[in-house]
DNA sequence: AATATATACATAATTTTCTTATGTATAAGA
DNA sequence: TCTTATACATAAGAAAATTATGTATATATT
């Protein structure tokens, strides 16, 4: 994912937020979108992404729809209602995380 | 550590930064300091903290000094020179992480 | 005096999340 | 023809945490 270990635990937040923005996306598209948005800083590996998508689907946060484009398989994922609610939670947690870490590394400013 | 998984991977950064601020600290003191600075948001568990301290020491980032206070053992940790350099790296990584995540969750602002 | 809580360390089993490696298959470009 | 891009998947292993224990002393409460 990156040389930094801080991204551990962030993958679900990233997936959910992207699906919240783009309605429906397929796995490979997510990897490319993340690469583009972060200017190459962050690369989502397939070994991390696909199991994560399967798990989110199993938990009922994502719905999947299979399509065939140019004779190739695509699995489009979209948020369920529960998934949309969970996205809000994840984003709140991210904001809280950033606030907390800033309190720790920059105690004078907080 | 917290209900949020985002803290996974942040523990070393937190330890190094606190030691950078406070010169020398012992394990239990670190747990209390984190609790206080984050107003209870973040609780470092012993099962995470002590192995992390041992590893940082084994990697040469921390020096340890044992003391007896009130007939109880304390292990004071302090940054080595390498540890101080690594603290700078970790803080840069944290800043980069926050920047990257903001690009992902708030693409319009970036 | 007895009991609970706080201080202070430690580790072992398990879980979660990721990396690395590998596999299949089609399309497009050099 | 061969490499790169597209598109999925999983398995083995590593890393970092959780949860559960364990030891021991000091202090506060009942």
UniProtKB/TrEMBL annotation, chains A, B:
Signal peptide span: none
Source species taxonomy: Bacteria, Pseudomonadati, Bacteroidota, Flavobacteriia, Flavobacteriales
InterPro entries assigned to the protein according to its UniProt record, in alphabetical order: Metal_resp_DNA-bind_regulator, Tscrpt_reg_PadR_N, WH-like_DNA-bd_sf, WH_DNA-bd_sf
One GO MF term: DNA binding
UniProt KW keywords: DNA-binding
Domain (Transcription regulator PadR N-terminal) ranges: 15-86
Stretches that traverse the bilayer: none
Name of the protein in its database record: DNA-binding PadR family transcriptional regulator
One Pfam assignment: PadR
SUPFAM superfamilies: Winged helix' DNA-binding domain
